[in-house]
Structures are given as C-alpha cells and as structure tokens.
C-alpha cells in the first residue's frame, strides 16, 4: 500500500538546509491496524477477511489454531487441567503472532 509523500518547500522556511533552497522530502508513516476480537464462532475470520479485501490491508490471521495443531491440542480440557501446558501454549501463540507481524513489517506490508 503506497504511503503519501509530503514535500516541504524550504524557500519559505527558516532553515539553512538544504543549502540554496530546495525541498526536503518526508515520508509520512500511516500505520493502520485493525484487531477483531470475540468468542469462537462469531465470524471474526470472515469479518477480518472482508476488511482486508475492502481496505487492502494485509490479513494476519490468529495463530492459536496453528499452534494448537502443532502441539496436538484437540481438546481444551487439556489446557484447563494442565497449567504448565496452558502457559506454554499461550507463550507459543504470542511468539507466533509477533513473528507473523514482524514478517509482514519486514516485507513492507504493514
């Protein structure tokens, strides 16, 4: 998504740089992030996909389902009954979500 560019004419500013007048070029950073939250089965993913399509913003899906599959967690009761497992799951989800956001940022997508 292209970012707007602002040109500032230094002839009218009280600045010495760049010498002999000219222009400074600034890139305005416009970061827009939309988070969709709610309980399971309410259409968060559908809404997020529609927002992504409408706005052109990248979609970073939630990573909990992926991490749950990797950890072979098919039943929430295991997490409810095992605090250490629940803690490990939460940390892995957080780390994965951050990693996905960093991948997008480094590729210039957000």
From TrEMBL:
Cross-referenced InterPro entries: NadR/Ttd14_AAA_dom, P-loop_NTPase
Stored Pfam families: AAA_28
Domain NadR/Ttd14 AAA, residue spans:
33-107
Name of the molecule in the record:
NadR/Ttd14 AAA domain-containing protein
**Species of provenance:** Desulforudis audaxviator (strain MP104C)
Read off the lineage from the record: Bacteria, Bacillati, Bacillota, Clostridia, Thermoanaerobacterales
């Amino acid at each position: 998504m292209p970012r707007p560019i602002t040109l500032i004419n230094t002839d009218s500013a009280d600045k010495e740089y760049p010498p002999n007048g000219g222009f400074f070029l600034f890139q305005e950073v416009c970061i827009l992030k939309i988070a969709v939250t709610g309980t399971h089965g309410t259409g968060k993913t559908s809404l997020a996909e529609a927002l992504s399509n409408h706005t052109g913003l990248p979609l970073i899906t939630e990573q909990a389902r992926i991490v749950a599959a990797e950890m072979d967690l098919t039943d929430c009761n295991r997490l409810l009954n095992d605090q250490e497992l629940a803690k490990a799951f939460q940390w892995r989800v957080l780390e994965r979500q951050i990693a996905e956001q960093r991948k997008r940022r480094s590729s210039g997508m957000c």
